[in-house]
Design goal:
5-stranded mixed beta sheet, Rossmann fold, elongated, 14 helices, 8-stranded mixed beta sheet, 25% strand, alpha+beta, 20 strands, BirA Bifunctional Protein, domain 2
């Protein structure tokens, strides 16, 4: 890890479940001074967790009515001047790149790109709400003093979406549905509202024209709507002044890291500004052209940050469906290695992530190593198992599960994976 991200003294005092410590111990990610501070490099195991998480989020969002798209990581600076992001965020943007006499930027957000998709052709009220989603690579030049493992980085992938709505009433429905999705995903991860995460209503300041888009009536309307949605859900929330986005108020999902520091994991935002800036319109039932409103939302936020939270929440012991290695097969001796490889191949054919540890270490050391790596299941094979075509199955925390046929063990593990227990 880059010396700018943490120093040796800080590393020695990291909490046991700090994602920076566990990320190194479990071989999930690293940093390089030659690559640059705040630019994580995903090692094979960490890349596996990320890949499974991204597939889960994409499939879930599609099932919930989102249309996934791809847009470029770079765009003309004019796009961000039109959106209004440039004057507000230029200090955290990477420097412009001059190409063919035009200035381009590595994108810090995706909303302007998604609005270009919306304006590709005229839209009808029948098409709304339109939910445009993307797993988007973004780039923000955070100050070196702000960088912290995966929680705050300079290159990240955001599970982002923009919902174009006919009016504030439809927007209120979509905000509530976005919170439904967030709470569903949190439940899959084993996170509880009020215990592992909380809601914060972030408000604007009507007197600060430099930080916030000037439209007092729209601010009042947006804040009232979000407050009403939260109250109707009967969930606890706090209000925070001067924490809104420049274009509208938002509901922030707050989480605490291993050090007890609270961070905004992701948001649901009400936007009354961008539709004007990009001239977003739709044709209503009366045949007249009208201005929509937009809800910005993320289902899990930045992949990097949510993985940091999950590493700490699980203390590195990921549930089976997310574990980078789900099973380790341990042959007692060299004579049992061929059978171990056969068992592993059968598991792989059923999409189970498996490794064979046939190293020269003692069986006890290999079992300890597998448990230190938080591997959910261990399969030990020796003379008896080879003869009976079975495995001795063990769980990392529950201990021995007895001797099972390969088919029985496969059925048990597959069920746990499928149900995301």
């Amino acid at each position: 890890m880059s010396s700018k991200d943490k120093n040796p003294e800080e590393e020695s005092t990291l909490a046991q479940n700090d994602h920076r410590r566990l990320g190194k111990e479990l071989g999930l990610f690293t940093f390089s001074d030659l690559v640059g501070s705040g630019l994580p490099l995903w090692l094979p195991k960490g890349a596996t967790i990320r890949r499974i998480l991204e597939r889960f989020i994409t499939d879930t969002e599609i099932a919930w009515g989102y249309s996934h798209v791809y847009t470029p990581d770079i765009a003309k600076l004019d796009l961000y001047k039109t959106s209004g992001h440039y004057p507000y965020y230029k200090d955290s943007m990477y420097a412009p790149i001059i190409i063919d006499e035009h200035e381009f930027m590595l994108r810090p957000m995706t909303c302007p790109h998604h609005f270009q998709i919306y304006t590709d052709r005229p839209r009808s009220y029948r098409e709304l709400p339109m939910r445009i989603a993307e797993l988007a690579k973004l780039y923000r030049y955070e100050g070196s003093g702000e960088l912290s493992g995966l929680v705050r980085v300079r290159s990240f992938c955001l599970a982002d979406a923009h919902i174009i709505c006919t009016d504030k009433n439809q927007a209120a429905e979509e905000v509530s549905k976005a919170l439904d999705l967030i709470e569903y995903i949190a439940t899959v991860f084993g996170l509880k509202l009020g215990e592992n995460y909380s809601y914060r209503l972030s408000l604007g300041d009507r007197t600060d024209d430099k930080k916030y888009y000037k439209n007092d009536a729209a601010w009042d309307e947006g804040e009232t709507m979000l407050r009403s949605v939260l109250k109707d859900r009967n969930g606890a929330f706090v209000e925070a002044a001067n924490e809104a986005a420049f274009y509208g108020p938002k509901i922030d999902i707050q989480m605490k890291d291993a050090r007890g520091k609270e961070n905004t994991a992701f948001t649901v935002q009400y936007d009354f500004c961008m539709p004007d800036r990009f001239n977003l319109t739709y044709v209503d039932a009366d045949g007249k052209e009208k201005r929509p409103v937009v809800v910005h939302r993320s289902s899990i936020g930045a992949i990097e940050r949510v993985i940091a939270f999950l590493i700490e929440h699980y203390a590195g012991a990921f549930p089976v469906w997310l574990a980078p290695v789900q099973v380790v097969v341990l042959p007692i001796g060299e004579a049992h290695q061929a059978y171990a490889e056969k068992v592993a191949k059968e598991l792989q054919q059923h999409d189970i992530r498996v490794e064979v540890d046939a190293s020269n270490e003692s069986l006890g050391k290999r079992i300890r190593s597998a448990k230190m790596q938080k591997t959910p299941y261990l399969m030990v094979v020796g003379d008896k198992e080879v003869a009976a075509k079975t495995v001795s199955l063990e769980h990392r925390s529950e201990g021995s599960l007895g001797v099972e046929s390969v088919e029985q063990a496969l059925t048990l593990i597959s069920e746990v994976i499928a149900t995301k227990k």
